[in-house]
């Protein structure tokens, strides 16, 4: 039997759902795979609960017994347990938590993250993290950084390992922007009403300009580019933002909300320019020929995979030497706590099975 100890950092939407999913599959995993998963540490930004393991009632225990902590307290707690393999799970939305990665790795932890920050900072940090992982024989899995539970990074890695040359990746990487342009392109509603509908259904960030700025799509594109070995920074991504400067920057959310009708003319003009049987899509576009990375609004034939996109789905078209004319297409829900937690859990199990096979990288 292989025992995996987890320290779960972040108990918001994804973290709580993940703990719940682990509790549900625990006994089956032990029976069928001979892998025991334990969660001796659960933490948010200020408090942690230390135990031997956490059971179904972890929320109550956390409320009653959690205490202020440092990362060293977590490392110490793991050292006091008979830990075979340790994984730190970063399901925070924090810019700061990644500062602990190096300490955790050097103290025996592998990392599984939904948090994108470590992969989107400057390239020096990205490279340094990989060097530290290699030097300490540790793994870092982050499938949910792009497309939530969809197997995007794994597919790209598999293609590269099998000698495929990836030439282009193009797709809709944002659920909210997928919804907005799927509705706007084919319906009759003016743009501001489609946007309001998306906000009212909770599909956008609280300030929808965070989605409309294109930055989140750009971050995902950057992660994919780096996966292909392209040495780029976020500033290298050419972004066509969907909000004009005067409605962003110093304009408050309230000021923006009462002026969203100003967006109508811009997008109606784009819609009028569409050729027959075409629709608008806001895409991330990576071309390896010139290492170009763009986030832009394009016209797409209705009959294409991107043109047929519905609801809030994400869609990734991957072009390679083999998938030249017809791309390899991955489509499905690209956000949401359940699919994201499932993706994180899938990374944890993949890593556990790897550790079970090689039985190296034991906690030190
Ligand atoms: N939700 C999705 O659909 C989705 C999809 C793909 C990826 N993701 C990624 O998954 C991550 C989690 O998302 P979420 O929706 O679960 O966020 P969330 O609901 O805002 O929860 C964030 C959690 O992280 C904790 N946290 C913040 N800073 C921390 C720190 N320095 N150390 C330890 N814990 C810290 C917060 O604790 P406090 O309450 O104390 O602040 C909170 O428990 C994010 O990085 C997000 O980008 C989410």
Describe the model.
With 364 residues, this protein is an alpha/beta fold. The protein folds into two domains: 2-149 and 338-358, Rossmann fold; 152-333, Dihydrodipicolinate Reductase, domain 2, CATH 3.30.360.10. The protein has 14 helices and 13 strands. It has helices spanning 13-33, 58-65, 71-80, 101-106, 117-120, 123-135, 152-161, 175-186, 191-200, 209-212, 215-227, 253-258, 263-272, 337-358; strands at residues 2-9, 35-43, 47-50, 67-68, 85-90, 109-113, 140-141, 166-172, 238-239, 278-287, 292-301, 313-320, 328-333. The chain has a seven-stranded mixed β-sheet with strand order 4-3-2-1-5-6-7, with helices on both faces. A hairpin with a 3-residue loop joins β2 (35-43) and β3. The longest helix is centred in the last third of the chain and has 22 residues, at 337-358. The radius of gyration is 22 Å and the shape is globular. It starts with a strand and ends in a 6-residue tail after the last helix. The mean pLDDT is 95. The protein binds NADP nicotinamide-adenine-dinucleotide phosphate. The site of NADP nicotinamide-adenine-dinucleotide phosphate (NAP) has 26 residues, from α1 and α14.
**Which structural class do you get from the secondary structure elements?**
alpha/beta
Question: How would you name the CATH homologous superfamily of the largest domain?
Answer: Dihydrodipicolinate Reductase, domain 2
Low-pLDDT stretches: none
Provide the number of structural domains.
Answer: 2
Q: How many β-strands, per DSSP?
A: 13
- Level-1 CATH class name of the largest domain: Alpha Beta
Shape, per Cα inertia axes: globular
Main sheet strand line-up: 4-3-2-1-5-6-7
Largest sheet report:
7 strands, mixed
How many DSSP helices? Answer: 14
The ligands found in this model are:
NADP nicotinamide-adenine-dinucleotide phosphate
CATH fold-level topology of the largest domain: Dihydrodipicolinate Reductase, domain 2
Work out the helicity level.
40-55%
CATH 2nd-level architecture of the largest domain: 2-Layer Sandwich
Straight-line distance between termini: 19 Å
Order of SSEs: EHEEHEHEHEHHEHEHHHHEHHEEEEH
Mean pLDDT: 95
- Give the strand content: 15-25%
Whole-angstrom Rg? 22 Å
Pfam family, one: Homoserine_dh
Protein name: Homoserine dehydrogenase
Organism: Winogradskyella aquimaris
EC number: 1.1.1.3
């Amino acid at each position: 039997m292989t025992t995996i100890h987890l320290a779960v950092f972040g108990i918001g939407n994804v973290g709580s759902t993940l703990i719940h999913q682990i509790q549900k599959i625990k006994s089956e995993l032990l029976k069928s795979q001979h892998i025991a998963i334990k969660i001796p540490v659960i933490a948010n930004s200020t408090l942690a609960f230390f135990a031997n393991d956490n059971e179904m009632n972890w929320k109550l225990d956390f409320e009653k017994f959690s205490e202020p902590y440092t990362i060293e307290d977590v490392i110490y707690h793991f050292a006091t347990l008979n830990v075979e393999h340790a994984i730190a799970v970063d399901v925070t939305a924090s810019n700061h938590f990644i500062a602990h990665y190096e300490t955790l790795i050097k103290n025996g932890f592998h990392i599984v993250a939904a948090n994108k920050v470590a992969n989107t900072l400057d390239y020096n940090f990205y490279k340094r993290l990989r060097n530290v992982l290699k030097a300490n024989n540790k793994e870092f899995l982050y499938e949910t950084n792009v497309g939530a539970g969809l197997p995007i990074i794994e597919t790209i890695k598999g293609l590269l390992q099998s000698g495929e040359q990836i030439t282009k990746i193009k797709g809709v990487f944002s659920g909210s922007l997928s919804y907005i342009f799927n509705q706007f392109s084919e319906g009759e509603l003016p743009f501001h009403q489609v946007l309001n509908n998306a906000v009212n259904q909770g599909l956008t960030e609280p300030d929808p300009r965070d989605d409309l700025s294109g930055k989140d799509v750009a971050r995902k594109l950057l992660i994919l580019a780096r996966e292909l070995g392209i040495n780029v920074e976020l500033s290298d991504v050419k972004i066509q933002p969907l909000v004009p400067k005067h409605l962003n920057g110093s304009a408050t959310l309230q000021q923006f909300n009462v002026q969203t009708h100003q967006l109508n003319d811009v997008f109606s003009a784009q819609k009028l320019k569409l050729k027959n049987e075409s629709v608008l899509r806001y895409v991330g576009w990576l071309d390896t020929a010139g290492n170009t990375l763009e986030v832009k609004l394009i016209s797409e034939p209705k009959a294409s995979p991107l043109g047929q996109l519905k609801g809030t789905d994400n869609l990734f078209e991957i072009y390679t030497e083999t998938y030249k004319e017809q791309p390899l297409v991955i489509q499905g829900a690209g956000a949401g706590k359940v699919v994201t937690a499932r993706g994180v859990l899938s990374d944890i199990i993949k890593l556990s099975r790897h550790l079970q096979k090689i039985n190296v990288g034991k906690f030190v």
